[in-house]
Design a protein that fits this description.
Elements (H helix, E strand, L loop, with lengths): L2 H15 L1 H7 L3 E6 L7 H16 L3 E6 L2 H10 L6 E2 L2 E2 L3 H24 L4 E5 L6 E8 L2 E12 L2 H8 L3 E5 L1 E3 L5 E3 L2 H11 L4 E6 L17 E3 H9 L7 H12 L5 E6 L5 H7 L6 E4 L1 H8 L1
Parallel strand pairs: 1-2, 1-11, 2-8, 5-8, 11-13, 12-14
Antiparallel strand pairs: 3-4, 6-7, 9-10, 13-14
Helix pairs in contact: 4-5, 7-9, 8-9
The protein binds adenosine-5'-diphosphate and N-acetyl-L-glutamyl 5-phosphate (X2W).
Length: about 300
């Protein structure tokens, strides 16, 4: 076979490699948590959005839940405050809450715009819309950390309605309590609770690190696969810190509540989502429920 023919065949093989994955996920809901840490520049954001749009055009039903933590911190500093976190949750006073709502709304509409540029209809909402995220005030180790909410209930009807009408829903993590007060919700928790409520086939996290490490300073300690129990063990043994803490805790909760496959990957790698979903390459850390672990290891 001549070289040019081989080149075409190689390309075709890459496309065909996607076939079983398209079959598996076709018409299934995939929740993509797009972390603020992976929103480094517009080029990268465009690639993430291209991936999600491709998933949609391949028959998947994607929902984007996004963060914006880094941008919120930037604005908190601009008003002369020092961002403060307890166990990975932002201490949120009234002024910070205002910043959270402003920044997340701006990020939300920016993502909507990028999707629309690709000819797909997107609707940006917050957890306040359609009663999506009901929250109660959260305390971190007994400490009052202000307007931080933990999700106690998800009303997914708005998401199903949007998906049915062929819109791509883009959600930011602000919720309402019973008195209709707005609260800042960690976006990882929001993504996990939403993934459980809509019975997502998969939940993918795009963040700023390759995956879960035993030691984040030593790249050789990347963990390719974890069960919920192993993830809990890592937290208990003190291997997990900062923003990874709410992420892993929420993942464990999601696995116990109907989500079977979760993937934490490096959103700074261009098209990481496509590579993870459509190819045999194992990227990042997969966190699987017991049934999926057995499926992969026999
Ligand atoms: N054991 C660990 N493995 C991987 N990341 C960890 C670990 N412990 C702490 N981290 C931190 O968690 C961060 C990811 O969480 P976060 O900053 O909240 O990202 P995002 O904005 O995507 O939610 C990483 O950049 C890393 O510094
Ligand atoms: C309570 C809490 O910590 N809320 C987060 C919400 C945004 C978020 O989670 O953004 P990332 O996904 O980019 O980290 C915050 O204020 O930073």
């Amino acid at each position: 076979m001549d070289k040019s023919m081989q080149k075409y065949l190689d390309k075709a093989e890459v496309l065909i490699e996607a076939l079983p994955y398209i079959q598996r996920f076709n018409r299934k809901i995939i929740v993509v948590k797009y972390g603020g840490s992976a929103m480094l520049d517009e080029e990268l954001e465009k690639r993430v959005i291209q991936d999600v749009v491709l998933l949609k055009l391949c028959g998947f039903k994607p929902i984007i839940v996004h963060g914006g933590g880094k941008e919120i911190s930037r604005w908190v500093k601009k008003v002369g405050k020092e961002p403060k976190f307890v166990n990975g949750f932002r201490v949120t006073d009234e002024e910070t809450m205002e910043i959270v709502e402003m920044v997340l709304s701006k990020v939300n509409k920016k993502l909507v715009q990028l999707v629309e540029e690709l000819g797909i209809k997107a609707i940006g909402i917050s957890g306040q819309d359609g009663g999506l995220l009901k929250v109660t005030r959260k305390y971190a180790d007994g400490e009052d950390i202000g307007y931080v909410g933990t999700v106690c209930d998800v009303e997914p009807k708005i998401l199903f309605d949007l998906i049915e009408k062929d819109f791509l829903p883009i959600v930011c993590s602000v919720g309402l309590d019973n008195d209709f007060q707005a609260y800042n919700v960690n976006a990882d928790e929001a993504a996990c609770k939403i993934a459980s409520a809509v019975n997502a086939e998969k939940l993918a996290f795009l963040t700023d690190i390759e995956g879960v490490y035993k030691n984040p300073d030593d790249p050789s300690t990347l963990i390719p696969e974890l069960s919920a129990e192993e993830a809990l063990g890592l937290i208990r043994d003190g291997y997990i810190e900062g923003g990874m803490l709410p992420k892993l805790k929420s993942c464990i909760h999601a696995l116990e509540n109907g989500v079977s496959r979760i993937h934490i990957m490096d959103g700074r790698i261009p098209h990481c989502l496509l590579l993870e979903i459509f190819t045999n390459k194992g990227i990042g850390t997969a966190i699987l429920n017991d049934q999926e672990c057995r499926y992969y290891h026999g």
